[in-house]
Amino acid sequence: MSDSSRIKKIRGYQVLDSRGNRTIRVKVETYGGVSDFGDAPAGASKGTREAVELRDKDGGVTEAVRIVDSVINDALRDFDVLNQLAVDRTLLKLDGTVNKSRIGGNTTIATSIAVLKTAAKSLNIEYFRYIGGPKTRYTPIPLLNILNGGLHAGNMLKIQEFIIIPKDFDSFSDALFASTTIYKKLKDLITERYGKIYTALGDEGGVSPPLEKTRDALDLVYTAIKNSGYEGQVYIGMDAASSDFYNDGVYEIDGKKYSPDEMIDYYANLANEYPILYLEDPFNENDFDRFATLQSKLKNTIVTGDDLYTTNVEYLKKGIEKKSTTGTIVKPNQIGTLSETFDYIELAKKNSIKIIVSHRSGETEDHFIADLAVGVQSDFIKTGAPARGERTSKYNRIIEIERDYGLEYYGKRL
């Protein structure tokens, strides 16, 4: 072990995320003077099985910072940043709980990311190359949340995200720039119909027009695609985040109440009317069976689990057994360490489940998940609209990787 990779000091910082909330940043420094940082993002819509964030009563993270400066710094001093597994196992041992509730999943993930980034820097290689090695050959397809409902908006829509998916393009750059054209066209449509005030941006950069029904939102997005000249190349996705509108055994959406079985037909009808390639969390987080029934009906749609799995191998195994989905969201902060994240991705890939590396609604300007998505050869990356610096930093990073390393666009493979 050289001094360039041996940990000298680990320090925590209380910084701001994209919603103006406080979050934790962790910096790792080696004896050789190499250092890098990791940030913990935060979600608004969360699965109940996610790793627990350690927060003060006022919402701050001063206790998390204290733990980094003392407990984690003392435990990991002299560890090799190149030994990610040993570092992450030590973090798990320090916490000792199933859901990271003792020292906090936000604390562990920020530390885990900082260690990996410092390791890559100590070898003077790109983060994505350190993660994936020479196997990295393509860039992921972006899923761009351009219209918001649910907990991400102030309108009456229940579906949380309406997404565009630029699939049939020659490069990531072409796909992204086409998406920006659609995004601007959508804002023009909303300005014409409802007024410019409704083009104000939500947490993830999407717009929130005064809509009540799902079809109204889909019509707007589909019209923006057609008016931009990209019909047939750009598809539609939805993140229902349905646990947020599921109460007492029924789903309340579009001013009506639907039983779980009626929701199967609800989604199937939408998929027949619109080019819906992707559907995330269509049922509450415990309904593995109806996920499976819907996926069996929608052969051309990637039914995807987020709250269903929370980047946890235990729940993914259950989904695999029941054939619940053909896609899974990957959010490292849901599980708390990168080693656990890599185990999760490996299990999904072995079972032909598509990977969607995802941001959270509360992000920072760090573009690490872009490198993560390329490094693990994710099928998709989900990181918001093509707006707001904490979102565009991820997209711009992939453009940089594509140009510098000549990677192929995965859209041509899907």
TrEMBL record:
(2R)-2-phosphoglycerate binds at residues 160, 331, 360-361, 382. Keywords: Cytoplasm, Glycolysis, Lyase, Magnesium, Metal-binding, Secreted. Its EC number is 4.2.1.11. Substrate binds at residues 152, 161, 280, 306, 358-361, 382. Belongs to the enolase family. InterPro entries: Enolase, Enolase-like_C_sf, Enolase-like_N, Enolase_C, Enolase_CS, Enolase_N. It catalyses: (2R)-2-phosphoglycerate = phosphoenolpyruvate + H2O. Mg(2+) binds at residues 239, 280, 306. GO terms for cellular component: cell surface; extracellular region; phosphopyruvate hydratase complex. The gene is eno. CDD domains: enolase. Its cofactor is Mg(2+). It is an enzyme of class 4 (lyase). GO terms for molecular function: magnesium ion binding; phosphopyruvate hydratase activity. This is Enolase. One of its GO terms (biological process) is glycolytic process.
